[in-house]
């Protein structure tokens, strides 16, 4: 019996929930040859939406599509490695001619590719140390994309990482190449809103006003709970409307977490049992207990002020005026300035996120499971 609540890999079309409006917007924007900036809280489904868009016939049949998550990267060298590795992996299934064209274009790495002794095809075994001139290799990558025999779409997830690289002018270098391209569109995605908004909305930044912007919010409750009940029923199981509603409300519709709880409830409860509200609560308790050790490790890596601030915001759920005197007094924190500094560090670590509401920043813990664990433990 297949679990209909996917939490890893690409979600097959029958199990993909809604996002119809967003998908249409993406297709229209890409067809109009505009770059896209996609922001959302972590684990709201932006990666799955990108992959879903890539699977639409108008995109799949007419574009080469590439996706890479650069969150682990810390330098231009690593960015170049991730981009070239993704291009190579997409081209491999398309045959030797496509691979040879790529290798011919990337002169700076030509001597770093190995060859399979049986098939004779090159293998991507380029190491970070093989990239001696990342600026040159980057230029070759963009030149290759520009000369491809079909238009390309390249999605770069956690794009805000480039702002943290030690090399100077990375943003300006990327923008210089991208603005010259006619054959490749870019989707810049990320969850660190305060960095991305600065990159794309500040007139002093190279990427200013260079992409159409969309913010991915939660799926509406009616749509999601109907989807959940239908999926469970199709799988020959049952879930009460109250249980589906409760799972949604626990996380205010934050897709990954609702999906995760329903996935585990579906997987570990007796198949003959109707999934009820109490089952959702028990499943959530099991998940928090399982994640407790890793969450404790996260907390141990914070200093006292950062930990206190994170706990205070977790207990608020959504913290407005987090640097106000009232908030500081309520949670017995040191001072507004110390809270402000702690928040800046917690944002950099992506332990916090925020939304703008009426010109105020509303802070919350990025990981909803971590938020619940903190409230339980502290």
Layout of secondary structure:
Blueprint: H1 20-31, E1 36-39, H2 46-54, H3 57-60, E2 64-69, H4 76-91, H5 96-105, E3 114-115, E4 122-123, H6 134-147, E5 152-157, H7 170-178, E6 184-190, H8 193-201, E7 212-215, H9 221-234, H10 241-250, H11 255-268, H12 277-300, H13 304-316, E8 319-320, H14 325-330, H15 336-348, E9 352-357, E10 360-365, H16 368-377
Parallel strand pairs: 1-6, 1-7, 2-5, 5-6
Antiparallel strand pairs: 3-4, 8-10, 9-10
What does this structure look like?
The protein is built from 16 helices and 10 strands. The chain has helices spanning 20-31, 46-54, 57-60, 76-91, 96-105, 134-147, 170-178, 193-201, 221-234, 241-250, 255-268, 277-300, 304-316, 325-330, 336-348, 368-377; strands at residues 36-39, 64-69, 114-115, 122-123, 152-157, 184-190, 212-215, 319-320, 352-357, 360-365. The protein is an alpha/beta fold and 378 residues long. Helix 10 runs parallel beside helix 12, helix 12 (277-300) packs across helix 16 (368-377) and helix 13 (304-316) crosses helix 15 (336-348). 49% of the residues lie in helices and 12% in strands. The strands form 3 sheets. A 5-stranded parallel beta sheet has the order 2-5-6-1-7, sandwiched between helices. A 3-stranded antiparallel beta sheet has the order 8-10-9. The model has no long low-confidence stretch (mean pLDDT 93). The chain is globular, with a radius of gyration of 23 Å.
Question: Briefly, what is this?
Answer:
The chain is of the alpha/beta class and 378 residues long. Helix content is 49%, strand content 12%.
Features of the shown structure:
globular; alpha/beta; 10 strands; 378 residues; 3-stranded antiparallel β-sheet; 49% helix; 5-stranded parallel β-sheet; 16 helices
């Amino acid at each position: 019996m297949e679990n209909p609540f996917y939490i890893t890999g690409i979600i097959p079309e029958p199990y993909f929930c809604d996002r119809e409006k967003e998908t249409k917007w993406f297709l229209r924007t890409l067809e109009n040859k505009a770059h896209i900036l996609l922001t959302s809280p972590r684990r709201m489904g932006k990666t799955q939406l990108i992959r879903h868009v890539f699977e639409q016939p108008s995109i799949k049949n007419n574009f080469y599509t590439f996706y890479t998550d650069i969150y682990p990267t810390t330098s231009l060298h690593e960015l170049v490695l991730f981009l070239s590795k993704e291009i190579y992996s997409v081209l491999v299934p398309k045959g030797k001619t496509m691979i040879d064209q790529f290798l011919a274009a990337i002169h700076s790495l030509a001597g770093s590719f190995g060859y399979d002794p049986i098939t004779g095809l090159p293998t991507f075994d380029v190491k970070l140390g093989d990239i001696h001139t990342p600026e040159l290799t980057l230029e070759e990558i963009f030149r290759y994309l520009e000369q491809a025999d079909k238009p390309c779409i390249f999605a770069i997830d956690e794009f805000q990482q480039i702002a943290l690289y030690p090399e100077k002018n990375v943003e300006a270098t990327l923008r210089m190449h991208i603005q010259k391209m006619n054959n490749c569109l870019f989707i810049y995605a990320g969850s660190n809103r305060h960095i991305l908004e600065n990159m794309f909305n500040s007139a002093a930044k190279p990427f200013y006003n260079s992409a159409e912007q969309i913010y991915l919010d939660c799926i509406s409750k009616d749509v999601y709970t109907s989807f959940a009940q239908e999926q469970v029923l199709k799988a020959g199981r049952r879930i009460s409307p109250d249980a589906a509603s409760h799972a949604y409300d626990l996380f205010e519709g934050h897709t990954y977490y609702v999906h995760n709880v329903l996935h585990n409830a579906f997987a570990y409860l007796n198949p003959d049992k109707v999934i009820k509200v109490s089952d959702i609560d028990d499943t959530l308790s099991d998940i928090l207990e399982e994640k407790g050790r890793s969450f404790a490790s996260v907390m141990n890596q914070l200093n006292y002020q950062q930990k206190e601030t994170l706990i205070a915001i977790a207990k608020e759920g959504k913290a407005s005026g987090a640097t106000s005197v009232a908030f500081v007094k309520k949670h017995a924190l040191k001072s507004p300035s110390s809270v402000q500094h702690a928040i800046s560090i917690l944002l950099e670590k992506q332990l916090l996120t925020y939304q703008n509401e009426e010109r105020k920043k509303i802070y919350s813990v990025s990981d909803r499971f971590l938020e619940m664990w903190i409230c339980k433990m502290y």
